[in-house]
Amino acid sequence: MTTYKEFHQYSIDKPNEFWTEQAQLVDWKEPFTQVCDYSRPPFAKWFVGGKTNLCHNAVDRHAAKRPNDRALIFVSTETDEEKIYSFAELQREVERMAAIYKSLGVKRGDRVLIYMPMIAQACFAILASARIGAIHSVVFGGFASGSLATRIDDAKPVLIVSSDAGMRGGKAVPYKHLLDGAIELAEHKPAKVLMVDRGLDKGFNKVAGRDVDYATLRAEFMDAQVPCEWMESSEPSYILYTSGTTGKPKGVQRDTGGYAVALASSMKHIYCGGEGETYFSTSDIGWVVGHSYIIYGPLIAGMATVMYEGTPLRPDPGIWWQIVEKYKVNVMFSAPTAARVLKKQDPAYMHKYDLSSLKHIFMAGEPLDQPTHEWFMNELQKPVIDNYWQTETGWPMLAALPGVEKTPIKFGSPSFPVYGYNLKIYREDGSECGANEKGIAAVVPPLPPGCLTTVWGQDDRFISTYFTLFKEPLVYSSFDWAIMDDDGYFTILGRTDDVINVARHRLGTREIEEAIQNHAAIAEVAVVGVEDKLKGQVPMAFAVVKDASKVATPELVKALEKEVFATVDGILGAIGRPVRVHFVTGLPKTRSGKMLRRSLQALAEGRDPGDLTTIDDPSTLEQIRNALAS
Ligand code: ATP
Ligand code: MG
User: How far apart are CA 517 and CA 564, in angstroms?
Assistant: First the structure.
């Protein structure tokens, strides 16, 4: 028996021994010759020389031993479909998809962009890419043409896999239509677009020579056998973009071997899931949780994974628990927003179903507030485990490790640093904080296996973005405030940059500002996140118009606000739309020209605007107050 503390200490003191043991959880075609090459800080290469393949570990090795066990459970409450794929069936579908890719000219190292709803074919598309050594880049379906175009131009895919439409809350989202708009906007044009036609958007546009039909091609490759490409451990497996506070999203690049080991190890020590069990993550494949804990993690562990298209409330608020009962889900993963939504429903929906299969529920993505944490755990009578991490890290940085030791849960805390992460809290001068002192959470490199290896195509940006918090010491900055209590439990207090978190969709304030700025009438705009009981946060905009006569009457104000909404919808999608656009003649800025965002946000939330000694024009705040009061 090891304690959490000993386990963590061992991983930091003896990383070579520790990670060599963890690496036994995956199959290697050729063994690695060096555990970690850290000769070029802060770049780390894990399991150097080792050859493996993510798809082999997720699918083939289980299909060989347990072909008829469940692998993928697709459930859509939007189209009333349910389909189960065994490991053998999943492998055949992935091989068909891989054969299609090859027929369309996709080669090892090429990018495949996946812009798809939560359907089984999206899972095939991801795994087929890994199988042939292509690099996938999944873009969340909630993003509209503008955001998608930026990602197309950065990743330069040879192939885009998409679908006619997705469904959310009973309404169709026209994916293909948005994709066509994005390709139009993008400078880079993909050679082929592979379309999974669900028959949801009968009139979708087909571009001759470019768009090809999945069902037709699949029929040609029914018996295709496509072997796995053996990848050197540090060869990239995928790119995934963060939400992009700086306006231009960062393409997080993930390796192959390090990621496989990190996920396999996390399934054992954090999530406690194993062969023959079932995992249900309510996230989306467009987010990092979807990559790590809908697709790769559970499958690598030999579990069945549930892919769910639908909301937590339709057909009724019992739907998740119905899925747990029906498929005997053992491990669940969700987000605090969802818990807050469920908290508003009649708890009878939760108690109606047999949840005895369920061991743990994990929550991540944003702070899980103490009252919600406590409520959820009391209602479910199961451990609800908060875990903190980032797109960049790919797997938890802070979490309890029930697979190692069952430490008590403290409400509102994601517990302790996870093994492999030498995580500390720093003051802004680079010295370490003591207990109960707020500072910035940072990781002493090398980052453990599974974390980003660089920013796609921009090594310099990898360093300048993440490793320049201090001159000394060299650390990876999380950009989140954190605090540790006397018992070693951590709490995340929010981020040091400005990101708005709307119902677990993260949007940079800057991204929304840039979208609004596309409206010809707008001169300047500031967007802040304002607290919202249900969604966590909602964006609110304060805009200065170029021509004051455009907002001279309440009718004109309403009309312009509507136009701005439409502009944002067109660029970012409705998730980026602010709740209000307040028109003012000036914005509060420091004398050096920096927006006083915190003050704006404080006023919008009815709080004290804080330290204003550096404000350039105090009258701007009066205007904001008046605008908010009206
Ligand atoms: P960008 O880097 O472009 O701004 P993002 O940081 O919003 O994107 P993610 O990587 O999905 O996108 O989110 C990671 C962030 O989410 C963390 O840095 C933290 O602020 C927050 N977060 C995630 N999990 C938790 C948690 N359990 N508790 C508190 N905050 C969390
Ligand atoms: Mg971030």
Answer: 9
d(CA 168, CA 147): 20
Whether residue 38 contacts residue 44, with contact meaning beta carbons closer than 8 Å, is answered with yes
Tens digits of residue pLDDT in 557-571: 999 999 999 999 998
- 258 CB near ligand 1 (under 6 Å): no
- Going by alpha carbons, the residue nearest to atom 30 of ligand 1 is 366
Of the candidates 119, 118, 68, 116, which has an alpha carbon nearest to the alpha carbon of residue 92?
A: 68
Quick: pLDDT tens for 340-374. Answer: 778 878 999 999 999 999 999 999 987 787 878 99
Pocket test for ligand 1, best of 389, 489, 512 (most atoms within 8 A of CB): 389
Among residues 446, 477, 397, 388, the alpha carbon closest in space to that of 12 is found at 446
Give me the DSSP letters along 71-83: EEEEEETTTTEEE
| 509 CB within 6 A, ligand 1 | no
d(CA 263, CA 465): 25
Q: What is the pTM of this model?
A: 0.84
Protein residue with its CA nearest to atom 2 in ligand 1:
242
Q: Which of 151, 154, 242, 413 to mutate to test the pocket of ligand 1 (most atoms within 8 A of CB)?
A: 242
Q: Residue 592's pLDDT is what?
A: 54
> CA–CA separation, 117 vs 166, rounded Å?
5
| Pair of tokens at residue 427 | 């003051």
Contacts for 501 with CB less than 8 Å, ≥ 6 apart: 366, 507, 529, 536, 537
